[in-house]
Amino acid sequence: MIRSHVLDGAKIETQIDDKFAISSDQPAPHGEDSAPSPFDVFLAGISGCAAYFAQRYCRKWKLPHEGISVDLIPSFDDRHALIGVDLRINVPDSFPREHLDGLLKNANACPVKKALENPPQVSLGFA
Questions:
Q1: How buried is residue 93: exposed, middle or buried, by Cβ count under 10 Å (0-12/13-18/19+)?
Q2: pLDDT, tens only, 9-25
Q3: Are 45 and 80 within one domain?
Q4: Which secondary structure element, helix H or strand E, spans residue 49, and what is its range?
Q5: Fewer CB within a 10 Å sphere, N or C end of the chain?
Q6: DSSP assignment, residue 27?
Q7: Nearest by Cα to 37 from 48, 49, 46, 28
């Protein structure tokens, strides 16, 4: 279970299965900008997942993964609603070109990205 606790101001502490904690805050003027916003954590999850699946491909084919990174560029409309997410895999020049398609395909299998492509229903109520 994931449980978020409201702290002072706009700060939130989120517990994940009693194993991990993520601190978040809102940018000024709503918060102190002392930690990533919950929305930043959400976007980081997409990028991190794609990077993991890229690394997994490299491990499978015994390819070096040093220097591989994933950039996430979000697009927003005039009301600051998310309208697009552009993921870009950066590979060093030394990465074998014959593996680029496989690397991209594997990174594309990220389940966080897939959840956005076919979003689940989300409900909100009282416990």
A1: exposed
A2: 899 999 999 999 999 99
A3: yes
A4: helix 38-60
A5: C
A6: P
A7: 28
Residue 61 sits in the same domain as residue 22: no
Name residue 70's amino acid.
V
Strand partners, 87: 72
∠67-71-77 over CA atoms, to 5°? Answer: 175
Residue 73 and residue 30 in one domain: no
- Is residue 3 located within the same domain as residue 27? yes
**Which pLDDT does position 116 carry in this prediction?**
94
Task: Output the pLDDT for position 97.
Answer: 97
CA 3 to CA 20: how far, in whole Å?
11
Give me the pLDDT at residue 95, please: 97
Is residue 114 situated within a structural domain?
yes
For residue 104, the SS3 value is helix
Specify the DSSP class assigned to residue 58.
H
Angle at 127 between CA 46 and CA 82, to 5 degrees: 25
Q: pTM for this structure?
A: 0.91
Task: Name 29's bridge partners.
Answer: none
Mind listing the pLDDT tens digit for each residue in 44-93?
Answer: 999 999 999 999 999 999 999 999 999 999 999 999 999 999 999 999 99
